[in-house]
Amino acid sequence: MKKDLKYYMNLPYELIITSKEGKYFARYKDFPLSLSAKTEKKAIKRLKNAFAKRLKIMLKNNDFIKEPSKKETILKNLNELFVSRAKFYAFFDENIAKIKGDIFDFENAEALNVKKVYERFYHFDYAIRKLLPSVYSAYEIKDSDLSKDF
Fold first, then answer.
1. Is it the case that residue 18 has pLDDT exceeding 90?
2. What angle do CA 49, 52, 54 make, to 5 degrees?
3. Predicted confidence band at 102 (pLDDT cuts at 50, 70, 90)?
4. pTM (2 decimals)?
5. Which of 14, 46, 112, 138 could be bridged to 35 by S-S, CB 3.0 to 4.6 A?
6. How far apart are CA 134 and CA 131, in angstroms?
7. CA dist., res. 91 & res. 86, Å (int)
8. Is pLDDT at 126 greater than 80 in this prediction?
């Protein structure tokens, strides 16, 4: 895999936001760069822009660029998976009545917009697929180890 600007910009560096006296400060946990702004959104945008510029220089100079640990990557992907799963089931909760506690009443449910169901499922499925490379790596799983019956 080519470690270019896009590669580093898509790594899950831990973003830390703090505020003090009406200013927001954004920084990455393991990268010596901090930017401030009047809004949190603006501080994050400024940080990402400055981070990209710094990375370009570091790549050009062949400098060492610290990457987040595998654990950080797995935690970020797990958290995204849990959020996506919650949204997926919240969609069902909003659109399908339940019987006997947590059992969905599909028999009496009105027709759902298939496109909306697919959109929710896609985000859930994507979060799972992002997590899999870390799981495969942690347990040294190869494609040849997997059943292709799915």
1. yes
2. 110
3. confident
4. 0.52
5. 46
6. 6
7. 9
8. yes
Torsion of CA 98, 104, 109, 115, to 10 degrees: 130
Residue 112 tokens read as 């759902």
d(CA 57, CA 50) in angstroms, rounded, equals 11
How close are the terminal C-alpha atoms of the chain, in Å? 27
Query: pLDDT by residue (tens digit) across 46-90?
Result: 999 999 999 999 999 999 998 887 777 777 778 888 888 889 889
User: How far is residue 16's CA from residue 30's CA, in Å, rounded to a whole number?
Assistant: 10
Coil vs helix vs strand at 15: strand
Q: Of the candidates 148, 39, 131, which has an alpha carbon nearest to the alpha carbon of residue 80?
A: 131
The whole-angstrom separation of Cα 19 and Cα 1 is: 37
DSSP H helices in 5-113: 5-9, 40-60, 70-95
Cα–Cα distance between 56 and 53 in angstroms, integer? 5
What is the SS3 assignment for 18?
Answer: strand
Integer Cα distance of 11 and 73 in angstroms: 8
